[in-house]
Design a protein that fits this description.
It contains eight helices and seven strands; from the N terminus they run βββαβαβαβαααααβ. It is an alpha/beta fold. The protein has a seven-stranded mixed beta sheet with strand order 1-2-4-3-5-6-7, with helices on one face. It is a single-pass type II membrane protein. GO terms for molecular function: monoacylglycerol lipase activity.
Length: 244
Amino acid sequence: MRRAGVKKRFLLIGDDNNEGATFCYYEKGSKVPHEPSFIFIHGFSSDKYAWLGVIKEIPYGFHCIAIDLPGHGESVGFNEEQLIAVNVFFDKLNLTEPIYLVGCSMGGSIAAMFATKYPSYVCMICLLAPVPPGEEYETELLSQLRSGVYHIVLPETLKQFYAAAKLLSMKKVHANRLLARIYLKSRLSMLDQHKKVLKSAFENDYPNLEQSYAELKNLACSVLIIWGRQDQVYTCVIMLCISN
């Protein structure tokens, strides 16, 4: 955290729908009048920590925020969909200047849906391997997740952990059993919450993705989409749905 220059902060929401709900986030710098802030949204089962390597490289003159989505990291107590919760977060922090919105994986899809629903909030969006829009574009892995087979990304045993690591990494993962057990134990505490997030995403967000992606071309702001050529989770065919 120190090397990235961030401070950990908490934001109590506490409205009628989210009594006691709290966002946790990293912040680097402070808001600059008439200048956009960088907002980073992580992927499924990840957290704000994933962005520290990126934020470290951004000069101190820029304002950066990396949030823990509801059901992830240290954000707790939310009853709403991710998109609504993110909007509440921006409003509570009074981020009135248009923002640079960056999202990875599920966070990329949330960024796309947010930008098309609230275009006045953003002046640029960057989507890193966002979720594809519909069954015809999904990989076998995503198809299994949609059908409720969660252990592929949410392992519950050491065997499932090593299988997931092999599937989701291009490089061989070298982790001894002790470290693997410690890591797995830390993840199991969030297992039920992550399953709820996945189920909600497929029920509430997934059906609306195709429309949101199609509307990206109507945005006045810049849109940057980046994909890994050998991505095992998602395919790059979403590009067929978006006109330059």
